[in-house]
User: What shape does this take?
Amino acid sequence: MAKMLPEYKSSEVITRYNGGEPILSKKDIPYEAECIFNAGVTKYQGKYVMVFRNDYRFDGRGAFGKCVIGIAFSQDGIRWEVQDKPFLTVEDMGDPDVTRVYDPRLTVIEDRCYLCFAVDTRHGLRGGIAVTEDFQKIEVLSLTVPDNRNMVLFPEKIGGRYMRLERPFPVYSRGGTDRFDIWMSASPDMKYWGESRLLMGVEHVPYANDKIGPGAPPVKTDAGWLTLFHAVDIDRTRGKNGWEARWQKRYCGGIMLLDLEDPSKIIGMYQEPLIAPETAYEVEEGFRTNVIFPGGLILEEDGTVKIYYGASDTVECLATARVEDLIGLCRQGRTL
Ligand code: BMA
Assistant: This one.
């Protein structure tokens, strides 16, 4: 009999905005939309910008026929004005091999806004990096070889190199099942990536037994680079859930602190989930269930942070915390 896994609770330092009510969902979208989630958020030219995933045309069994990346702007990071057209679609990629674009992340570097996103192709999953200055024109700079995704960029060069966190899928070499870890690579120009190394293995996260992956692009603090990741456990006793025939995973949001000069060094990682699925949206009402998928972390001038996360692949939510508290949690799990 499979082992029952414990219930997890979010850390007390986290406050769900509006009790966990979504800040963006399908009712806010002026075009065909169903599931609005896994957004990337940043501040650019005086406004908050959000790019979000929109899955629609559910086939009634377990998959969506369409997926686009939408875009919205906000003055306060809470109320959003959604643009009347999607920001990035499969057709925009101009490559017949591409079947889906999704899970976008945003990072501003040297006054330009970079987008990392996942690209499904007929020959595997690729991680894309693109740049824009006006959210109209977008230039794709690089696409990884399969299988890689969940990429996030650091907001500045470190040691003269652009840096990213990423999550390859080494299936054959990790036992033929999910055992996926967080890696990092460096680049002189955003196009050519190398110097790849392991940042954190799934076995280092006490509340994951399946896989981990980068979540929100790292934020610079005096104490180090603060970054959110997702961590997944599987419990075979979990049965039918949500709209799916079978969903046995749980996704939690975790937090860690990386060394400013050498971000391949983890200063500390909070040993428990920072955000665990708890509200109805997160636990039971979505297309999936038990999913917290963080994609945006914004540090405000008053020392608070905004954490944006997708809830159960259906809606987008917001939580807040104090940056000092997050750093404190990471230091409790100090490794350096
Ligand atoms: C992952 C990705 C995410 C999604 C998560 C939970 O593999 O597909 O986009 O949020 O699963 O379903």
